[in-house]
Write a structure and sequence with these properties.
It is built from 11 helices and 9 strands. By secondary structure, it is α+β, with helices and mostly antiparallel strands. The protein folds into 3 domains: 125 residues, Acyl-CoA dehydrogenase/oxidase, N-terminal domain (Butyryl-Coa Dehydrogenase, subunit A, domain 1, Orthogonal Bundle), CATH 1.10.540.10; 100 residues, Butyryl-CoA Dehydrogenase, subunit A, domain 2, CATH 2.40.110; 163 residues, Butyryl-CoA Dehydrogenase, subunit A, domain 3 (Up-down Bundle), CATH 1.20.140.10. The strands form 2 sheets. Strands 1, 2, 3, 4, 5, 6 and 7 form a 7-stranded mixed sheet that branches. Keywords: Flavoprotein, Monooxygenase, Oxidoreductase.
Amino acid sequence: MTTLENRPETRFPTTPATPDEWLARAREVRTVLAEGAAARDRAGETPHAEVQLLKDAGLVTLLGPVEHGGGGQEWPLAYRVIREVAAGDGSIGQLLGYHLLWFWAARLVGTAEQIEAVESEATRNQWFFGGAVNPRDEDVVIRDAGDHIVYNGRKSFSTGSKVSDVTVLEGVLDGTETHIFAIVPSQQPGITFHDDWDNIGQRLTESGSVTISEVQVPWDQAAGFREKAFEPRVYNTLNVPTIQLVFVSFYLGIARGALEEAAEYTRTRTRPWLHGGQERAVDEPYQLDLYGDLASKLWAVEALADRVAEEGLAIHRNAWEVTPQERGEHELRVAAVKARATDVALEVTGRVFEGLGARATATELGFDRFWRNVRTHTLHDPVAYKRREVGAFLLRDELPEPTWYS
């Protein structure tokens, strides 16, 4: 079995009401995803059923307004939900994380009226969001066509592509340096997803390239614009620390999935070394040291991630008044946890093999997918620059300047 279509339907009769209930729901989803995850990774099929599972579980509207059927929850819980889902399947954890980020993008840059319109529609209709916003590419060009704008161009990456209901576009107004975000239907003649994502990890994220041709958007749907003029605020720059914490969440989730799956294998299948003097692998001192070391490091970064998420809550709750100082201090803490999560996730997913044994390298088991998933996405932006942000503050009292990556 390689797809979720081959298993009995998973029913979720009630909507969670508390953070604990939402985490329990996320763990249910994790359990479903973990079954057959290695086979689905090898098959690399478009994860329509996996996204439908996220919808059925209510996770896609976790941040949505309660009055429209959403969970009404906030980012600290959302990060933990992403972590749980990623423990079952790293690709689906990334898809959920990116979806929640783009769902929230209306709050990031939109006017009050746009926020209400987008969140109500997205929640009621359970839109699943994708995004074509890779800043390393040449910018998509936007033409002013009177009462609407027109997007044209290409992006190398568009995570969520074929499984998304709507896609966030970003480009630059022709002849200016003005960036404009907009939400458009994914399935339309002007958007071509090239289905060319063929990387070693995160194989089910639908992150291939996209061509955008004559996609029209009314000016009143250009995020944050009134009368063709953008209304800036400091909160507009929270995209980087927020998405970096999304990254941290699925890195740590993948690492936890690797550690717990490996521990189960060691408990039940790993044979003790014939010269070790132990009858069970779980009694060998080097196994106890290995798992104790990896778990301690993972728990420490999880605790730091939770703390940094809570520290950022005041900024999200005060979106219209946040100061550059508050934003800069938060980004520093995010940079620190991103650096540690990257290192620990790579270490955990690589070193678990030391506790498994040679038989566990069988392709069927798929233990390599955890490392491949982390290794693939941790190359998104160089972690050395995150450490540099922290060092520059410590040594020179410099706060990071807001950019696409800081």
